[in-house]
Amino acid sequence: MPTPKKKTSRSRRDMRRSHDSLTTAAVATDKKTGELVRPHRAMKASDGAYYYKGKQISAAKN
User: Fold this and answer.
1) Collapsing DSSP states into helix, strand and coil, what is residue 41?
2) What global pTM score does this model have?
């Protein structure tokens, strides 16, 4: 198995890992119900229908 020729310094290692941190998910408020929803995604309401930007996009399935 290949091994590195030189030791990677702490600085270089940490610079490489600078983009690995987790970020919080973006959240928006639904206009109709006031619930927190992820942006650019359809939301399933309690009535079973799907809503996008406050408008119903599919009927509830029984």
Assistant:
1) coil
2) 0.52
